[in-house]
Design a protein that fits this description.
alpha/beta; globular; Rossmann fold; about 250 residues; 2 domains; 7-stranded mixed beta sheet
């Protein structure tokens, strides 16, 4: 984990309220893995006080850069959207436990909305390793399939689903999983409802879920990002996750 004064190299609009930020952060890029996140100070002042956690979408260790894909939802991300190339930004990372690739099984990546970000990073890791990888991605409408360009650049094909039928399958992205699970391991990131469906559909198929949670410290001290553990108790998303084996967590109750 490093605390680094990064430099904004790009911060552009992708679609509606979705943006793509590129940071020059060589110390963090040197060790960031797929599924991990960084914690950004949204403004040079202390308003808003709390940092914002964003998944690493791509990592170039040679150039020392990170790509972040995020959605502007509140004051913190609105402040991040105001950052311009050349601006400095205080970044803590890499944080959390990332994805672990299962040997002997083809990775099938399941993305919902901006949850595509950590899965681009995993696809990039698979490409570097020479492993076959499959991606299915869903969004409300075609313009919000914001990971397609990065996946194309990696040479990874993506099957799409949209709620309104404007691209690919009409319906939830989990509707694309039927008949695809044999010989696969699932890696999913997206809204809680989608992750619940993936968990239910996986059955005996190995599955890992990348969970989104509001968090304050990002390092396990405040315990504000707890999620329910299967069998009772709680797990901390910031340190024990954000990636969990499907059997570790529950969405029941």
């Amino acid at each position: 984990m490093n605390l680094e004064q990064a430099r904004v190299e790009e911060n552009r609009l992708l679609a509606a309220d979705h943006r793509r930020m590129v940071l020059h952060a060589p110390a963090i890029a040197a060790s960031a893995g797929a599924g991990q996140f960084v914690h950004l100070r949204a403004h040079d002042s202390f308003h808003p006080l709390l940092r914002r956690p964003l998944s690493v979408a791509r990592c170039d260790r040679t150039a020392g850069t990170l790509v972040l894909i995020y959605r502007v939802l509140g004051e913190g991300t609105a402040r991040l959207a105001d950052r311009r190339p050349g601006d400095g930004i205080d970044v803590l990372g890499p944080l959390g436990r990332g994805f672990r690739l299962a040997p002997g099984l083809t990775p099938l990546l399941v993305a919902g909305g901006v949850g595509v970000a950590p899965l681009i990073s995993l696809a990039e890791e698979c490409v570097r390793m020479g492993r076959a990888v499959e991606v299915v991605a869903g969004a409300r409408t075609a313009s919000l399939l914001v990971g397609e360009a990065d996946l194309r650049e990696l040479g990874v094909e993506c099957c799409s689903a949209t709620d309104d039928g404007s691209r690919g399958y009409r319906g939830p992205v989990t509707g694309l999983l039927g008949g695809r699970l044999d010989g696969r391991a699932l890696y999913a990131a997206g809204p809680a409802g989608m992750l619940r469906q993936v968990q239910q559909l996986a059955g005996a198929t190995p599955a890992q879920l990348c969970i989104e949670a509001a968090m304050a410290c990002g390092v396990g001290a405040c315990r504000g990002c707890a999620c329910r553990a299967r069998g009772g108790g709680y797990r901390l998303v910031c340190t024990e996750g954000p990636v969990f084996d499907s059997h570790e967590v529950t969405y029941d109750g």
